[in-house]
Amino acid sequence: MSRKINTNLLHSYPVNDKYTGAASIPKYQVTTFDQKNIYVDAQKYCYSRMGNPTLEALQEAIKQIENAEFAYVFSSGMAAVTTSLMLFKQGDHVIFPKEVYGGTYQFASKILPKYGISASFLDYRNIDLIKENIKENTRCIYIETPSNPLLKVSDIERIIALAKEHKLLTIADNTFMTPIYQKPLAMGCDIVVESLTKFINGHSDVLGGSLATNDEELAKEISLLHKNFGAVMGTEDAWLVLRSIKTLGLRLEKATSNAEQIAKYLINNPKIKNVYYPGLDSHENNDIHTKQASSGGAVLSFELFSEEERIAFLEKIKLPIFAISLGGVESIISHPATMSHACMSVSERAEQGISDNLLRLSCGIEDVDDLIEDLEQALK
Predict the structure, then answer these.
(1) Are residues 54 and 202 in the same domain?
(2) Are residues 264 and 239 in the same domain?
(3) 271 has catalytic annotation
(4) Among this protein's residues, is 198 annotated catalytic?
(5) Number of structural domains, the chain?
(6) How much is the pTM?
(7) Following DSSP, what letter does each residue of 166-216 receive, concatenated?
(8) Does the annotation count 45 as an active-site position?
(9) Catalytic residue among 101, 105, 124, 142
(10) Is 349 one of the catalytic residues?
(11) Where residue 141 sits, what CATH number does that domain have?
(12) Considering 28, 92, 98, 173, which one is annotated as catalytic?
């Protein structure tokens, strides 16, 4: 029997504790496990960095929602990103989108070179440009779509086809869409990264990340790095994400509906210079996004005309919090130039098209009429 999203999020992975029947997997808040029978039977759990029943339950949940054979959870989204990039060695070359997430950009441009791993940052709208920049030592094409914060769209299937042609790995950061709305593994991607901090947890109270793959050899390498880097998720955080996955479908349905309506409102408002949202027909790659994702998502960005208007707007907006991050049940407005992309220079941001008057809105689950009314009064 084929089940739909919300049923799967409640019944397709360990939800009840097999030892007690508890309706919620307990927090196995422990570092070590008694091993009296170590010489008789190989014991499943010995030390929580290498395995814990709560973390294992969450990894099973991630496998189910990603439709993956293997999944690993980490202490933050960046821990997952950096672990995936440490699969490469001295002399290797990795291709990234020019508008990749600020933290990933900083790691690739400032830290990877110290280990002899070079990076190129390209405009993924031009597939021929990617092809032209593949070198003998290129090992991976890294995908992030839609991009942060301008919601640029990359053609996942074409990039994966190019990578396979040249025997390259593909890693996709799928945080904005989540596996509910976009499924890179099903399209042939080798590894998918999710920031669990964002929509999958969705309550602004947990840092976490995950890697998922269907490749057994890659899984072995990721497992080795996972254990030895030690950036494993804490038990409390894993339990909270397990709690949140149960409502992921409902939360996303409301948040994306809000985003669609707000994007349509803003694009018709004369106080707004630009709106960036892949669910709009006017988005330059709406056709590609619609082909590979089942929703426009819950995040949009918009640009005001001047610094004065931006400052006045942020002083008057009431409902969304003004903060770093996204994906919470509450709406969150952020200023990329001083938040998510502050690690970039002014010229680097300008090259990506990130102006100082750009704001990103992650829509929560509030009543949309109240959000639009609040935007209206702030823009006035």
Answers:
(1) yes
(2) no
(3) no
(4) yes
(5) 2
(6) 0.95
(7) TT-EEEEE-TTTHHHHB-TTTTT-SEEEEETTTTTT-SS----EEEEES-H
(8) no
(9) 101
(10) no
(11) 3.40.640.10
(12) 173
